[in-house]
């Protein structure tokens, strides 16, 4: 049996691999989990001893096949729980991340199966993040880009929104920006504000918020 903390590390490494490739540095993991580098190094040693990661000194770590399977199972639990909480328990999308974090380690395979069946086997969670299938195969990249990468005049459709910041999610909900929203960049200010136009009008977003939004360019460019 793996501890909750071990599973959290594997999940974090998987997310960081997807975002920046391999190997994943100790400092990146420390920042992602808000831990000290020595604490991270100690845990990575334990994960390597159990065959869940491969370490390369001074470079970082990479998940083994076994480690990746564990990470995908935890992520599947997490995103199914987020979907269940929003669709059946009336949670706001800004409140489900922490709740799912607490529950994801403790549900049985039977509970997972029943939740997935109740939700009609969803493929994405409320924030647009893909839900790994029951086969726990890695989810293909969706070819999205950060909103901050779009230039003035470009149009895109929101595919995902980071769920790591509750305040940002509340801000975006009020602005009417969620997965499926079409938006056009109308201005990029030199001091970091990105102004977009949606069906609800124009919204000015701090660059940090714009970076947390993934979009598919409407014309596939």
Notable characteristics:
single chain, 221 residues, alpha+beta, Arc Repressor Mutant, subunit A, SH3 type barrels, 6-stranded antiparallel β-sheet, two-stranded antiparallel sheet, 8 helices, 8 strands, 19% strand, globular
Overview in brief:
This protein is of the alpha+beta class. It is built from 8 helices and 8 strands; from the N terminus they run H-H-H-E-E-H-H-H-E-E-H-E-E-E-H-E.
Question: What's the helix and strand layout?
Answer:
Layout: H1 4-20, H2 26-33, H3 37-49, E1 53-56, E2 60-63, H4 65-88, H5 96-103, H6 109-118, E3 145-146, E4 155-161, H7 166-175, E5 182-188, E6 193-198, E7 201-206, H8 207-211, E8 213-217
Helix pairs in contact: 1-2, 1-4, 2-3, 4-5
């Amino acid at each position: 049996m793996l501890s909750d903390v071990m599973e959290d590390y594997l999940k974090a490494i998987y997310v960081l691999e997807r975002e920046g490739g391999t190997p994943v540095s100790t400092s990146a993991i420390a920042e992602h989990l808000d831990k000290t580098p020595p604490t991270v190094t100690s845990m990575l040693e334990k994960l390597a001893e159990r065959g869940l990661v491969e370490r390369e000194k001074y470079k970082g770590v990479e998940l083994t096949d076994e480690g990746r399977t564990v990470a995908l199972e935890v992520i599947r639990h997490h995103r199914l729980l987020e979907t269940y909480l929003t669709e059946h328990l009336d949670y706001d999308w800004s409140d489900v991340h922490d709740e799912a974090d607490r529950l994801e380690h403790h549900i049985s395979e039977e509970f997972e199966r029943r939740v997935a069946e109740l939700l009609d086997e969803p493929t994405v969670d409320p924030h647009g993040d893909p839900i790994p299938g029951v086969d726990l195969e890695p989810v293909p990249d969706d070819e999205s880009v950060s909103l901050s990468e779009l230039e003035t005049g470009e149009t895109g459709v929101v595919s995902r929104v980071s769920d790591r910041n509750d305040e940002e999610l509340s801000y975006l909900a009020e602005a009417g920006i969620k997965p499926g929203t079409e938006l056009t960049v109308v201005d990029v200010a030199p001091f970091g504000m990105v102004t977009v136009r949606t069906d609800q009008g124009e919204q000015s977003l701090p660059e940090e918020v714009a970076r947390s939004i993934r979009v598919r360019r409407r014309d596939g460019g």
